């Protein structure tokens, strides 16, 4: 199951699990759409492709909550 990380690793933008606009690589490194575009859709950590992260409904979050530890270290 995806961790659904709450923020962009590059700029710290909030990325709610139920909202579109997050991009992930196969290791779940997570970026907002603006940063993914600036990175040419390539993860700076592993070199993998950044793809649209699926959303998770609020109902599903009650049973399977998203990850809550922020990744941005600014």
Describe the 3D structure.
InterPro entries: DUF1272. Residues 54-74 are annotated as: Disordered. By secondary structure, this protein is of the alpha+beta class. It has 2 helices and 3 strands; from the N terminus they run ββαβα. It has a single domain (1-67), classed as Herpes Virus-1, CATH 3.30.40. It has helices at 33-38, 58-63, and strands at residues 22-24, 30-32, 51-52. It has a 3-stranded antiparallel β-sheet. The N and C termini lie far apart (27 Å). The model has no long low-confidence stretch (mean pLDDT 96).
How are the SSEs ordered, and which strands pair?
Blueprint: E1 22-24, E2 30-32, H1 33-38, E3 51-52, H2 58-63
Antiparallel strand pairs: 1-2, 1-3
Whole-number count of domains: 1
Distance between the termini: 27 Å
| N-to-C series of helices and strands | EEHEH
| CATH architecture descriptor | 2-Layer Sandwich
The major beta sheet can be summarized as: 3 strands, antiparallel
Strand content: 5-15%
Derived from helix and strand composition plus strand pairing, the structural class reads alpha+beta
Rg over CA atoms: 12 Å
CATH fold descriptor: Herpes Virus-1
Q: What level of helicity do the residues show?
A: 10-25%
Q: Please work out how many helical segments DSSP would assign.
A: 2
Strand order of the largest sheet: 2-1-3
Mean pLDDT over the residues: 96
């Amino acid at each position: 199951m995806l961790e659904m990380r709450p923020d962009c690793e590059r700029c710290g933008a909030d990325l709610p699990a139920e909202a579109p606009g997050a991009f992930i690589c196969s290791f779940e490194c997570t970026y907002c759409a603006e940063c993914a575009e600036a990175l040419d859709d390539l993860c700076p950590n592993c070199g993998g492709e950044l793809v649209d992260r699926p959303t998770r409904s609020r109902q599903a979050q009650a049973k399977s909550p998203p990850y809550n530890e922020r990744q941005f270290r600014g």
